[in-house]
């Protein structure tokens, strides 16, 4: 990764609410661990039920967020584009993916594995609180979208009790 690309990624990460409190060095460590991924239109980035072991930061392109309603019908919840992200729930809980993400156009993303993220969290456990707020807000948005899309059900919100143990933060 060249310096301009690293600087751009650093700037994007700094704007993400739950990463804003990280130090320059911690953000730099995350940037160093980001892996560039290129996808074609129609590629499935993650599938509902897949292991939750990574976070994606979109650099270019557009992805659609898909789920299923109570009747098993495929339902689109929305879109994400450049400088947006998904997979923060996976970083926190490691639970299976709660949605399927499909590229609407050629897309470039950066992947951060849970293993690499956990190192940063251990050095700055307060980031978990901000991430929990983000996750709860997204889950609430998912419930609202579900109520507008023929009863689609987002994943159950009961993950916070397992959070500390999963992140090996003790208590």
Protein model, in words:
The protein is of the alpha+beta class and 171 residues long. The chain is 40% helix and 24% strand. It is built from six helices and eight strands. It has helices at 3-15, 24-33, 88-93, 114-123, 127-148, 160-166; strands at residues 35-39, 44-46, 54-60, 63-68, 74-80, 85-86, 100-103, 107-113. The strands form two sheets. Strands 1-8-3-6 form a four-stranded antiparallel beta sheet. A hairpin with a 5-residue loop joins strand 4 (63-68) and strand 5 (74-80). Helix 1 packs across helix 2. The radius of gyration is 16 Å and the shape is globular. The N and C termini lie far apart (38 Å). Mean pLDDT is 80; it is low at 151-171.
The count of helical stretches stands at 6
Category by helix and strand content? alpha+beta
Mean pLDDT: 80
As laid out across the biggest beta sheet, the strand order is 1-8-3-6
The count of strands amounts to: 8
| Beta-strand percent range | 15-25%
Shape descriptor reads globular
List low-confidence stretches: 151-171
**Residue share in helix:** 25-40%
Radius of gyration: 16 Å
Quaternary structure classification: single chain
The largest sheet, given as strand count, sense and whether it forms a barrel, is:
4 strands, antiparallel
Order of helices and strands: HHEEEEEEHEEHHH
* Beginning-to-end CA distance, first to last residue: 38 Å
């Amino acid at each position: 990764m060249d310096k301009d690309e690293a600087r751009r990624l650093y700037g994007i990460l700094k704007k993400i609410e739950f990463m804003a409190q990280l130090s320059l060095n911690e953000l730099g460590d995350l940037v160093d661990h980001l892996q560039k991924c290129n996808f074609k239109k129609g590629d499935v980035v993650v599938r509902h039920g897949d292991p939750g072991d990574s976070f994606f930061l979109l650099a270019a392109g557009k992805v659609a967020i898909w789920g299923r309603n109570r009747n098993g019908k495929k339902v689109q919840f929305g879109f994400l584009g450049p400088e947006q992200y998904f997979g923060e729930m996976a970083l926190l809980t490691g639970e299976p993916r709660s949605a399927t993400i499909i590229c609407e156009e050629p897309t470039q993303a950066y992947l951060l594995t849970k293993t690499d993220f956990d190192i940063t969290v251990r050095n700055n456990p307060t980031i978990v609180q901000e991430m929990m707020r983000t996750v709860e807000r997204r889950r609430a948005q998912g419930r609202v979208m579900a109520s507008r899309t023929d009863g689609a059900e987002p994943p159950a919100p009961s993950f916070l009790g397992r959070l500390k143990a999963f992140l090996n933060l003790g208590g």
